[in-house]
Design goal:
The chain is mainly α and 126 residues long. It is 64% helix and 11% strand. It contains five helices and three strands; from the N terminus they run ααβααββα. The chain has helices at 11-23, 26-35, 42-48, 54-66, 88-125, and strands spanning 40-41, 70-75, 81-86. Strands 1-3-2 form a three-stranded antiparallel β-sheet. Strand 2 (70-75) and strand 3 form a beta hairpin. It is globular and about 60 Å long. The N and C termini lie far apart (49 Å).
């Protein structure tokens, strides 16, 4: 049996790469996991996603909205209220990445320990 390798220059491969770039971005994954619990306001997302700047959060939410993963709803209040929520497509992505988030939470201590051991080994060589 012959295995056919994908043509990395093909239109399909470029399209998949574009999608994976969006969903593989660390901020996008964190926001998708966070919105899995339901709609959130901008500042609520910003507080929950530590270390993200307002500009990066805006760009990431805009990209997720453009890709059809998140909807943005603005309410006519003063001050304006804006909610972000997963679309059905976003929920299907959440189902794929939520186990990854759970795994990361359950193994963060192991990863930190491994990094420390590795870094100490590198320091001894230098």
């Amino acid at each position: 049996m012959t295995v056919k390798h994908p043509d990395h220059a093909s239109e399909d491969c470029r399209a998949v790469s574009s999608v994976l770039a969006r969903v593989g971005d660390k901020w996008s994954v964190l926001i998708i996991v966070l919105l899995g619990d339901g709609p959130k306001r901008f500042n609520e997302i910003k507080r929950s996603v530590g270390g993200i700047s307002q500009r990066m959060l805006t760009l990431t939410l805009r990209g997720l909205e453009r890709d059809g993963l998140v909807t943005r709803t603005q309410f006519p209040t003063i001050p304006p209220r804006v909610d972000y929520e997963l679309t059905p497509l976003g929920h299907s992505l959440w189902k794929a990445v939520e186990p990854l988030g759970t795994w990361a939470q359950g193994h963060v201590a192991h990863i930190v320990e491994a990094r420390t051991r590795f870094d100490e080994g590198i320091a001894r060589i230098d």
